[in-house]
Write a structure and sequence with these properties.
Strand order of the largest sheet: 1-2-3-4-9-10-11-12
Order of helices and strands: HHHHEEEHHHEHEEEEEEEEH
Oligomer: single chain
Helix content: 25-40%
Radius of gyration: 20 Å
Distance between the termini: 32 Å
């Protein structure tokens, strides 16, 4: 099926905004394909009627669009991660993944009525940890026989490696709420890498005085079945080749000027760190080591790419 026909079937409404959205998707996908930014089967996946297949591929189109808006020089290699950014003589690899909503409750994905719903933060966090694990293994390999990008020489020892996670499919079918921030009020990408749990208040049993709110230190998160999952990726020295997590909640509206929620979470132990302000994001998080047992996590303002004024006008 041709790309235009597939996108028109997926977005069939005739309203002006939908028509503009449809044309922007077709243009962005065609530009992505013509520029050689996708794998050999990229067009087929964009034409797929399966929603998960479509979104896995469209996420790469949207990430490429964000890199373009940020003015970065990048290309799609014949093998290896999705994109390679060339910056000041360095290579920064970007591997994209869109976690599927496996085991996320249907009450969140498709609430029975209205916008009132429980927030299944642990189920969603498990999807973030699974995405990080999958793409970290792509780089490092695993004990099941997977030879990673480093071992194969696709990614050099002095290259940076960024895992870009688009959380669009974790929002729910209506897409009403983005899925960047977890129960801690930090991004899920922070919770999954720095062992940060929910806020807690401690009470003195004798005086009943309450402590100041503080975050739990949560090293593991339970799964419905099987062993608990570590959520301390950036505190584990095995993952020093992973430079950062780029969390982004991008949907089709980003092609019409909508600014996606996004954050870059830096690995303080990264062998090859990524400069702050390089990747487009609203927030960036860096950890400063205080001593052998403590660190201080700091949020800094990110750098957003300029908005396409014509697209923004259509969006409004």
């Amino acid at each position: 099926m041709p790309l235009r026909e597939a996108i028109e079937r997926r977005y069939p409404h005739a309203r002006e905004r939908i028509a503009a959205l449809r044309e922007s998707i077709i243009a962005a996908c065609q530009r992505y394909i013509d520029a050689g930014l996708g794998d050999r089967d990229a067009e087929r996946r964009l034409c797929s009627t399966d929603n998960l297949t479509y979104w896995q591929q469209l996420a790469e189109v949207l990430v490429a669009h964000q890199l373009e808006l940020a003015g970065l020089c990048f290309f799609h290699p014949p093998e290896g991660p999705d994109f390679c950014v060339e910056h000041k003589g360095r290579r920064i690899w970007v591997e994209v993944i869109t976690p599927t909503p496996a085991n996320v409750p249907e009450g969140w994905l498709a609430p029975p009525g209205g916008d009132v719903r429980d927030f299944p933060h642990e189920a969603i966090l498990l999807r973030w940890t699974a995405a990080i694990k999958e793409k970290a293994e792509k780089l490092l390999g695993n004990d099941r026989g997977l030879r990673g990008y480093l071992a194969s020489g696709v990614v050099a020892a002095d290259d940076a490696y960024v895992i870009a996670i688009n959380s669009r499919l974790l929002r729910g079918y209506d897409g009403a709420f983005d899925c960047i921030d977890g129960i801690s009020q930090f991004p899920f990408a922070v919770e999954a890498t720095f062992a940060i749990g929910p806020l807690q208040v401690l009470f003195n049993r004798e005086t009943l005085e309450a402590s100041a709110p503080e975050h739990q230190r949560r090293m593991l998160i339970s799964k419905p079945r099987g062993e608990a999952v570590p959520v301390d990726t950036f505190l584990d020295q095995r993952f020093t080749p992973v430079s950062a997590i780029w969390a982004i909640d991008a949907d089709e509206g980003t092609l019409l000027g909508k600014v996606p929620r996004s954050a870059v979470v830096h690995n303080p132990s990264a062998i090859n760190p990524v400069p702050t302000g390089l990747l487009p994001a609203q927030d960036e998080y860096e950890a400063r080591t205080l001593d052998d047992d403590n660190y201080q996590l700091e949020r800094i303002d990110g750098r957003l790419p300029p908005v396409d004024e014509m697209a923004a006008t259509i969006e409004r």
